[in-house]
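Entry for the shared binder. Reason: the reviewer on the internal report wants the predicted structure included alongside the sequence.
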Amino acid sequence: MSTQKGRIFISYRRADSAGYAGRIYDRLTDHFDKDAIFMDVVQIGAGLDFVEVLENAVQSCNVLVALIGKNWLNIKDEDGKRRLDNPQDFVRIEIATALKRGIHVIPVLIDGTPMPSANKLPENLKALERHSTIAQATRI
């Protein structure tokens, strides 16, 4: 049964926290309409422009939940470069858009992952370090 109104965007790396994202999505649907919660695998249909859909969804949300697992900061691309350093990285685009627009960003630290320090983040993500976090244990 839905009891709250608002738009929530779940930002996560599939290789790092997809299982947690799914469980958080399920828990949020106990309190919010499914249409109010954006999770890429649920809302992006075949043939749609992935980046365009992500940017529109972030711009229309009230809250962005950023799941940060143990590998979030250092996951590499096929060339061995840190994905977060790529300006076209989806997670970077999502969080940077939310920070720039003044959207409420809630970092959720998975399994004791420490909050990344600003000096390890790209310039447009440095403000993330100043956001209050939620620590998430192994069980959701």
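Summary line for the report: The helical segments are 14-28, 40-43, 50-59, 90-101.
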